[in-house]
Structures
1.
Amino acid sequence: MNRKYRKTIIAGNWKMNKTPAEGKALIEEVKGIVGKQKWCDVVVCVPFVDIPAAIRATRDAKIAVAAQNMHYEKSGAFTGEISADMLKELGVKYVIIGHSERRQYFNETDNTVNLKIKAALEAGLRPIVCVGETLEQREAGITEEHITMQVKIALRDIAPEQMRKIVFAYEPVWAIGTGKTATSEQAAEVCGLIRAVIRAKYGARCARSITIQYGGSMNAKNCAGLLSKVNVDGGLIGGASLKSDDFTVIVDAAQ
Ligand code: PEP
C-alpha cells in the first residue's frame, strides 16, 4: 500500500451467495467494525437482487455497494441483463468488470471488458477491472505478455481524466477460490507490472494514483503479508468476505 498517493480499497465479492435478507444480516455484522475506518475504503460486491437491501443497510456506514457485472449497452433487447444506469440509480458506486468467472463461464472477452469499462464510467460508476493469468500461462512464462495485453485492451480509448475512477484487481485465475494464494512477491510483481503499463500510457503521476488490488484466496492469515507490499493497494476478496470475522480482520490489516 502507498497511502500517500492512492486509496487502499478492500472489496468483498460475494459472488452468487446470500439472499437479500442474508446479505443484510452480514452487513449488519460487519458494519460496526468496518463501517468507520479511516484509511481504507470498504466495498461489498453483491448479487443484483441484494443491491436495494445492501444500499439500505450501508446507509449509516462507510461501506460502498458494488455490482458484480453489468451490460455495456445503455438499454435495449438484452433479456436478463442490467445496465450501468440502472445500477447508478439504485445508489451503486462500483462495478466489477471482467472477473475471471465471467470470462470463463460467460464468454466475456478483453473487448467486452473495454466496452463495459467505458459504459460504467459514462454512467458515473467506478469499474474494478480484473486481470489475471491462468496456471498454464504462468507455467509457459507468458504472464507478463498476457497481463500487458489485458490491461492495454481494457484501457483502449480511455481518456487520462477518466483514469482516476478506475481500480484494477490482479487476480491470478489459479488462485481464485482454490485456496492457493500468490506469494506477496508474485502479487507485488504483477501489480507493479500493471502500474508500469499504465505509466507507459498515461505517465507516472497517473500510474502512482491508481489503486491496484490483489485477489485470489486472500484471507485473515495471509492478508497482512500481501498488503505489506507497496504496489498492493487492497484486496478483492471472495470466500473470506462471506465470514464477518475474516473480513473484518482483512479490513483491520489494511487499516
Ligand atoms: C474473487 O472472487 O475475486 C476471489 C478472489 O475469490 P477468492 O477470494 O474466494 O479466491
2.
Amino acid sequence: MSSHPEEHFARKALSVSGTHSLEKKLRLGVLISGSGSNLQAIIDACEAGKLPGVEIALVISNNANAHGIQRALKHKLPVIYLPWRKFPAGEYVDEMTPNEGQIAGLLQFFRVDLIVLAGWMRILGATFLDQFAHRVINIHPALLPREGSGETYTLSTGETIPVIRGINAVKMALDAGLKITGSSVHYVTAEVDAGPVICQQEITIEPGDTEESLHERLKAVEHRLLIEAIRELS
Ligand code: GRF
C-alpha cells in the first residue's frame, strides 16, 4: 500500500556511541470512552511481547466512568480524564476546539507517534487531524470500503452490502437484515468512518443474534484486528 503512510511509523534506529543501536518504540496514545476492551487487547499484546516495538504512552478518556480508565490504572499506564465540552456549531472553524487543543498538547507532551481511537465516541475535526496526518487510526464495527469512501462494500461472496457508518453500526447491521457484517481498522480522516482501511474481517450474523451477542463476537475479532494493524504500522 504505497499510498499508506507506513513510513511515518518507521522505527528509527538511534545510534549510541556508534556501536549500539536502540530501536525507538512506537508510542501509542489510546483514546477511549467506555469499556476499553480494545485497550485491554493492546495492553495484553504488549505485555505478552506480541508488539515488541510498541508501548502505550498515554490513555485519554472523555468519560470519567469509563471502565477503560480502571484497566489503564491496573497496568500502571498514564491515564487522563478530559471532559469534552460542547461548543456552538461554527464557533471553531478552521481551528481546533479547546477540547482538541488539550488533547493535541497532551499527545505531544507524551511524544505519541500513533493515536488509536479504541471506542472513542467523539468526532475529531479536520484541523486536529491535519496536525496528526496519517497518525490516527480507529476501529469501526462494520465493513468499510477498502479505500474509505463509497456507499457499498463487496463481500468475499461477491455480494454487495450497504456501508454502515457512525455510532449504532451493530444495531444498524441487524436492522438492515444483513447476513454478514464485520469490523474494520482504518485511518481517520475528517469524513467520519471513511478513511482507508488497514485491515478488516467479515463475520456472519447468526439467526437470533441480538445487538449484544453480535457486538460481543465483533469485539473478539476487533481485538485481533487492532493488534494486527498496530503491528503493521510499528
Ligand atoms: C468497539 O466495538 C469499536 O468497534 C467501537 O466501539 C467499541 C469499543 O469497545 N468503535 P471497547 O470500549 O474497546 O470495549
3.
Amino acid sequence: MRSQVRRRVMAGNWKMYKTQAETRDFFPVFLPLILDATHCDVVIAPPFTSIAAAVQATEGSRVAIAGQNNHWQKEGAFTGEVSSQMLVAVGCTYVIVGHSERRQYSGETDGMVAQKSRAALECGLTPIVCLGENFTERETGRTQEILSQQFIGGPGSLTPEEFSRILLAYEPVWAIGTGRTATPDIAAAAHRFLRQCVQDQFSAEAAASVRILYGGSVKPDNSQGLMAQQELDGALVGGASLDAKSFAAIVNCK
Ligand code: PEP
C-alpha cells in the first residue's frame, strides 16, 4: 500500500486539444465516473481558450483547472502571453510550468521556470513544475546530472516557503507522447533522486512532503503498476486525459 501522507494528484494536460464545445462535452461524461475518487486531487489543464468553459463545467465538483503556461510579469507588452493573475481571474488554481514541450519549442530555461513559479505562487496558483531528461541524456548516463541541473536552476532556487507550495512532475522527455513509459522502477529511481536533491537543497522534511508526479505515456493499462510505487504521488497525463473514460480509469486506480 502507498503511504497516505502525501495526497495523490492526478492531472490531465490537454495540450493544444479541445475547443470550448469539446470541453463542454467532456465533463458530463467524466465527472460521474470519478465520484468515488476521493483519494486524490484531480486537475485538468485545457488550452487557454477552453479554460472558462472548463471552469464553468466543473463548478461544484472536485476538479481543479490549471493553465498550461503563465508569464512571469503581471501584465505588459508580451504578445501571446497570459499572466498568472489572468489565470486566477478566470478560475484556475494550478499552472503547469516548464513542460518539456515549452522548453523544447519555446526556449523555456530553468531561470524562466523559476520566475514563472514565483509569479504563480505570488497570486496563489499551485505550480506543477516539470523536469526530465531526454533520450540521449538517458542513454549517455546523464539523467541525474540533468535532473540536478534543472532542479537547482528552477524549483531549487525558490525559498523554502515557496518550495513548500509547489508540485514537481518528473517527465522523461523520451516517454512523452511516444507510448514508451518509464517502468515503475525507472520512474521510482528518478523520483528518489529528485527527493534527494530536495533534501540537499532544503531539508529532509521538504523532501518527505513534496509531491512528485510522474508523466510520460501514462495509460489505463500501466497506471496501476506506476501508482503502486510509493515514490509516485500521482500522474501528469497527456494523451490519455483527452478521453473521459481513459482518464477516469487512471484517476480511479488505487
Ligand atoms: C504530458 O503532456 O505531460 C504527457 C506526459 O503526455 P503523454 O501522457 O501523452 O505522454
4.
Amino acid sequence: MSKSGPSSTDASRAHAATSRGAFSSSLGVLAATLGSAVGLGNIWKFPSLTGANGGAGFLLIYLLSTLFIGLPLMVAEIAIGRQARANPISALRQLQPRGAPWWLIGVAGMAAAFLIMAFYSEVVAWVFAYVAKALSGNLLSSDPVQTQASFDALVRDPVQALLWQWVVLAFIGGILLLGVTRGIEAATKRLMPLLFLLLVLLGGYSLTLPGAGQALTFLFAPEWHKITPAVVLTAMGLAFFKLSIGMGTMMTYGSYFTAEQNIPATATRVMLADLSVSLLAGMAIFPAVFSFGFQPSAGPSLVFITIPAVFAQMPGGSVLLAAFFLLTAIAATGAMLSLMEVPVVILHERWGLSRPRATLLTLLILGLLGAGCALSQSTLATFQPGGRTLFDWADYLSSNLLLPAGGIAIALFVGWAWGERAFAAQLSNHGQLGNQGLARVVSLLLRWVTPVLILLVMLAGLGVFSGA
Ligand code: TRP
C-alpha cells in the first residue's frame, strides 16, 4: 500500500522517536508501566471512592470493569504504541486508514492529560506537605476531629495549597529537565517494593483493630441496593484511571516497549500488581475508619485523616507516617511523569519543540490550570458552577467522561479500523508467542463488547436513561 505524504512524515518522525528512547529490558518495561499505573489512584482515589460509594458493590463493579474493559484496552493501547513507535497523534495518523481522523484521539488525550494533572498535582501537593508535617509529629492523633482539622487547615490555606503545588511542579520539572528520568525509574523500581511492604505491615496491623470485622464486611459483602448507575460509572472511571488508559499514556509507553515483550502478559501482571496495592491500601484504611469513628464517605480527605490515626497507635509513628507519605509521593511522581510524557512528547515530536521547552511549556500551562484546583477549597471555594468546585470538575470530567470516551474510540479503532491481523501480530510478537487465539478474543471484545458496554455505562451514569 502506498503511503500518503503526511504518513511518511509521520513514519520518519516515528523513527526519530525510536532513536530517542526505549525501555532497555523486560524488567524495565514492567517497572515503568507499573510505575505509571500505581499512584494516587491506589492510595488516595481507590479508598475514598470505595468508601463514598458503599464498599463491596463498588469494588465488584470496579473489578469487572478492570477485567473486561480495562485489560483489553490496555493491551490495545500498548499494541498501537509498539507498532507505530511514536507519540499518540503520530501513531494513530500512521496506522489509520487514509482520510479517517483517528489521530484526534491523541488530541483529546492531551487535553485529558492536562485536566488530570491539574488536580492530580494538587493531591501530590498535599502528600508532599504531609511528609513535612508528619516529621513535626503533630499530625499523629487517633481523634477523627483532630486529624480532619489538620487536613482542613492545609487545604483551606490558599498560600500553602499553591506553594506546595509549585514545589511539586518544580520538583517534577527538575527531574525532567535534568534528564534523570532513568534515575527516577531506578528509584521507583527499588522503592515500590518498600511501599508494598509498608502497606502489608499497615494492613496487617489495621486488621488487628477492633473495627476490622466491620471493615471486611464493608469491603467484601455487597449491598446490592447501593449499586446505582452513577456508582457503576464511577467504578468504571476508576478502572480507567488506575490503569492509566483512555488518553494515550499506555500508547506512549507502548512505543518504548521492547520487541520481545509479551504485551498481554505484561498488562495482566501490571493489572494484578496494581490491584493488590489498592486492596492493601483498603485493608490499611478501612479498619481504622470503623475503629476510630471516621466516616467511610469522607471523600478526598479519607487517606489523610485515617492513616495518621493508625500510626498514632504505633511506636515511632511519626517517622513511619513520614515514610508512608514519602513512598506515596514517589509512587505519585512516577504516575505524574507518565501523564506529563503525553503532552511533552507530542509537543516535542509534532510541534518540533525541544524536550526541555516542551516540558517548560507543559509545566506553565499546568501551573495556570492547577491553580484553579489548588484554590478550590479556599479562595475559590464558593465558585461552584453546576454544583462542583473546579477540582471536582477536573476529577469528574476526566474519569467519567474523557477517559471512557477515549476508551470507546480506541476500542473502535483497533476493532474496526486498524485490523485484526496487525493487532494479532503485535500480541503474538509476529507469531513467536502463542497469543493468536487470545488476540482473536480480545479483538472481538474490542469490536463488539467494550465500546457498547462503556457507552451504556456512560449514558446510564450520566442519567440519560432516567431522564435526570
Ligand atoms: N494510574 C495513575 C494512578 O493511579 C494515574 C495516571 C497516570 C493516569 N497516567 C494516567 C490516569 C493516564 C489516567 C490516564 O495514580
